[in-house]
Amino acid sequence: MKKILLVFGTRPEAIKMAPLVKALQKDTEHFETRVCVTAQHRQMLDQVLEVFGITPEYDLNIMAPNQDLYDITAKVLLGLREVLKDFRPDTVLVHGDTTTSMAASLAAFYMQIPVGHVEAGLRTYNMLSPWPEEMNRQVTDRICTYYFAPTEQSKVNLLQENIDAKKIFITGNTVIDALLMAVDIISTTAGVKEKMAKELQEKGYTVGDREYILVTGHRRENFGDGFLHICKAIKELAALHPEMDIVYPVHLNPNVQKPVYELLSGLSNVYLISPL
């Protein structure tokens, strides 16, 4: 039996790792699985854990007001030292490009524990865009042993960096599995649809008979032209599909609000609401 430790700390990581957590937990014949959260994003992380029914065995609870990348890196390294000594996993699994993933990979490396990188091989080759994510994922890929690439291009990127092809596995993106899991939870769990409708109504959109699309977008690398293109695409979709509503919880950052409200305000089937 292999001992697997999954480490993540943000809401996006939790969403994309949830299907893997559930799959490993089901296979008790081959795996002893434990989850360690760093809580780099405390409240948003806990929301996802509740939805997918995941209870971490370890919680570093590192979130603090005004902390910076130095704080996150140091806390994850020191916190995981004790977790790794306690569990002694055969493999540590991390996800994507967060500071949690980079620091967790380094912590495992210091104990000579193999690391598997879910969503490996994504690249811009510009260390400042996205920052610090591009450096985080490149450092993680230098450390890890197993590469779970979401696309063929991700594999090509890794091969061009002289990564052994035998260590690269094209898996697709686990966010699709998470989406299917969420649809099943919404469809089969009493009260979930009603809770969602109530929250949307409180934010400014009343769910009725019309189908609707929920939009999200706020990453800083999209500021400027990126958001202009996104908003123009949403505007075109709204015009092409007047029978559908588009609901956009708009991030509070002014770099997001300005193009969104300039281009999308006043459209009859586009609802700009406060963040969920």
Whole-Å distance between the termini? 41 Å
- CATH architecture label of the largest domain: 3-Layer(aba) Sandwich
Uncertain regions spanning at least 5 consecutive residues? none
> In the residues, how many domains can be counted?
2
Number of discrete helical segments = 10
Report strand %. Answer: 15-25%
The CATH topology of the largest domain is: Rossmann fold
Order of helices and strands: EHEHEHEHEHEHEHHEHEHE
The CATH superfamily of the largest domain bears the name: Glycogen Phosphorylase B
The computed structural class is alpha/beta
Morphology: globular
What level of helicity do the residues show?
40-55%
Task: Please list the strands of the largest sheet in the order they lie side by side.
Answer: 3-2-1-4-5-6-7
Question: What's the number of extended β-strand segments?
Answer: 10
Taking the sheet with the most strands, its summary is: 7 strands, parallel
Mean pLDDT: 92
- What CATH first level of the largest domain would be assigned? Alpha Beta
Query: How large, in whole angstroms, is the Cα Rg?
Result: 20 Å
InterPro entries: UDP_GlcNAc_Epimerase_2_dom, WecB-like
GO molecular function: UDP-N-acetylglucosamine 2-epimerase activity
Family: Belongs to the UDP-N-acetylglucosamine 2-epimerase family.
Domain UDP-N-acetylglucosamine 2-epimerase: 24-276
